[in-house]
Q: What sequence folds into this?
């Protein structure tokens, strides 16, 4: 389920579709975006593909500040998208929040 508003906000689905501590990939306007539900109940969103070797970031290990790509263990910050290793470029991050049980991503 995706629905875009006039402000560029996309409802990707229900918060109940997400598992705390894990990510899920959504196709939004031709882009693959990974959405993560953190242990504190907040959601984060970023490009779903690692720029190093196209690893699936939604399948990576997460903590409160980074997701680690499952292929080669490059970690990307939820706040900036920067890789913690200087050898790999950043991913794009998107503002995300929950409203009335729906996960909303700002494109």
A:
């Amino acid at each position: 389920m995706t629905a875009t508003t006039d402000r560029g906000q996309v409802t990707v689905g229900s918060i109940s579709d997400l598992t705390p501590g894990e990510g899920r990939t959504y196709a939004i306007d031709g882009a693959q975006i990974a959405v993560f539900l953190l242990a504190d109940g907040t959601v984060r969103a970023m490009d779903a593909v690692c720029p190093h070797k196209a690893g699936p970031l939604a399948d990576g290990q997460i903590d409160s500040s980074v997701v680690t790509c499952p292929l080669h263990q490059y970690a990307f910050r939820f706040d900036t998208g920067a890789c913690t290793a200087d050898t790999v470029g950043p991913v794009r991050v998107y503002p995300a929040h929950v409203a009335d049980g729906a996960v909303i991503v700002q494109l």
